[in-house]
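Input for the complex:
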Amino acid sequence: MSQEKYDFGLIGLGVMGKNFILNVADHGFSALGYDLDQGKVEGLIEEAGNDKVSATTDADTFLAGLKRPRKIMLLVPAGKPVDAVIESLRPKLDEGDIIIDGGNSFYTDTDRRFESLAKDKIHFFGAGVSGGAKGARVGPSIMPGGNKEAYEHIRPIFEAASAKVNGEPCVAHLGNGSAGNYVKMVHNGIEYGLMQLISEVYDIMKHGLRMSNVEMKATFEAWNQAELGSFLTEITADILGVPDDLETGALVDAILDKAKQKGTGKWTSQNAMDLGVPIPTVDAAVRMREISSFKSMRVEAAKLYTLPMAERADLSTDELKAALYTSFIVTYAQGLHQLSEASKEYNYDLNLEVIAKIWRGGCIIRAKFLEEIRKAYSFNKSLQHLLLNEQIAELVKTNLPHLAKVCAEGMRLGLPVSALAASLNYFNAFKAERLPLNLIQAQRDYFGSHTYERLDRPGIFHTEWEA
Ligand SMILES: NC(=O)C1=CN([C@@H]2O[C@H](COP(=O)(O)OP(=O)(O)OC[C@H]3O[C@@H](n4cnc5c(N)ncnc54)[C@H](OP(=O)(O)O)[C@@H]3O)[C@@H](O)[C@H]2O)C=CC1
Ligand SMILES: O=C(CO)[C@H](O)[C@H](O)COP(=O)(O)O
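Predicted:
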């Protein structure tokens, strides 16, 4: 290792860390990695093949090798490993040094670490990184939150390493404390929703329209060229074309239908419930992963409930496209509504236009449609809900009948369309001037004297309902 001081330090040379440090070095910054595993340290040095990058398993060498204030990014598993790394570094750091947690940490953990490190005048950033291994290597979307002045020290590195859309970096300081980790959590909630919607449309194509993988691949490819253009549409087309490397047929057909989860989608749903913000498409996506995990029960139930399946869905792929597009819009709208309410509750002062802007490239939920979202929040900085924007409303109105028909056809065929239906029902409830919840208020007052308000006059009322 050269004795030169490095611009940037990175701890955790796994999938994300190794790729991100190489990316940083590609942009002219010298970077020093640290990992406990000698193999990973040697692997990085070999892959980098230049003196802009080095790595070590020795913490003192690592800390001594960094320019002041030290800028140290952690890409280690969320939870205890993050605390363990912070506590091991802490006694050796100086005032003004900066620790950046790039992992999917829970936002309250970030607040705790932020406040604790502030006592030693060490800056702490929660900076969610999205884009997977490839994104980390060539340009992810980065969602940093923390002290705004200290951010200036890391801004040049993050702006250089992030994805660019129209020359604009997919990174911005998002707010104080845990704002960055919170935004990344909701990003992942939206990710869960979009993935579930795509999987339901795939199910209808496969079982309702009996389309082959080749036909489905061509359809997703075509969709990806137009308004549905997005990373997840693109990779779905790719996946449908990959042959099984162990047997004949397509690999996707050989994959066990149990979806795992690390927790960010569930956290999004749990927190939305705490805030009282409805995000039913994300909830449905989490629920479907849970249902999928009970495979043996599903196999037993499938034998017990063998029902005749309707012959074929009465649908065109254009109708499916319109349904998917509408439900995508509704899913982003739910996530952005959650961010808007969380911003007030946690004093993040989030700028939704900026968030839409930095999600346009690099991240898993990047999509052409994010430019329309950015425009909506640019046009009205205090837009309360994406579905209240007139341009977005026109898009939804045009496509909504197709979503309703796709849900109806899916249900007629006995196919689970949880996320599609959740999106449709959310929209129908959201745009209803009058909901039947007046009856619920009456029931609550009937059995528990919980009182109610009236439409025609102010005040709190109670009725003795029993004659
Ligand atoms: N993989 C992905 O697509 C994405 C991941 N993330 C998030 O990024 C974070 C890192 O993920 P990922 O790179 O996939 O994880 P990996 O498990 O691939 O890498 C984590 C690395 O951290 C090392 N490590 C763990 N503890 C310590 C420690 N105490 N000191 C030094 N090194 C340590 C691990 O070493 P060892 O293996 O030897 O324990 C490993 O090299 C997670 O929070 C994840 O949720 C975010 C976006 C996308
Ligand atoms: O953060 C990510 C992308 O943005 C990860 O890929 C995501 O955590 C995957 O989540 P899960 O394993 O729960 O599906």
